[in-house]
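Q&A log
Question type: sequence-to-structure
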Amino acid sequence: MQLAGLANAASVRLQWLLLKDSTNSTGTLRIDDVSLTVLTSFDVGVNRLSVLPTAPTSKDALTLNAVVKNFGTLSASNVSVNFYRDANNDRVPQPSELIGSSVVGSLASNDSTTATIAIVLLTPGEHRFIAAAALALDEVPANDTLSAVIS
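Response status: OK
Response body:
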């Protein structure tokens, strides 16, 4: 059953009516395979993060590409992406690890775009980079960040 008419409703109540069935006298109620998907109004997240080249040398410049998607039902404006080099490898973007930002601007519902920055890799070895989408009204922070590792 599609409930498209309930989009942007403040609340929804689902109700089942139980009727007596002559084939079952035990009073057992079984409901299987019920799923409910809730779409939020404002939800911008990082869908993919790539670092090029994939096997850099110490002389290579790196390009970080973050695909940012609007998963929400409404257009999102003032979207930006912050890029971090995870210096302490805790997978948490911290202000001291910020290496660049890119302003995406506005995204329509279900639209995506790529935010890009270029950096110079300073030392050889393994490096983790994090991209974090920033939207003031974001209702789902779980998809805001994504990381990638190069060595």
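Response note: The chain has a mean pLDDT of 86.
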